[in-house]
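Working notes for the structural subgroup meeting. M.R. asked for a predicted model of this chain before we commit to crystallization trials. I am recording the input and output together here so anyone reviewing the notebook later can reproduce the run.

Input as submitted:
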Amino acid sequence: MDKRLSHPSPKNIRDSPENIRGNSRDIRDGPKDTRDGLKDIHDNFKNIQDSPKENHDSPRKSG
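Returned structure, recorded in token form:
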């Protein structure tokens, strides 16, 4: 009983490379997700840049 517990089963050994390949695939997909994230940040930043312009125009229009 103890001998079986001290050694990983062949199934676990066989599954390990698959898990490693799965992790590598996630890492390769990462940059694509990052580019999408940066695009969202850029769009948000553009919206932030547009907001002050509208705020600055309002006092001039009312004043």
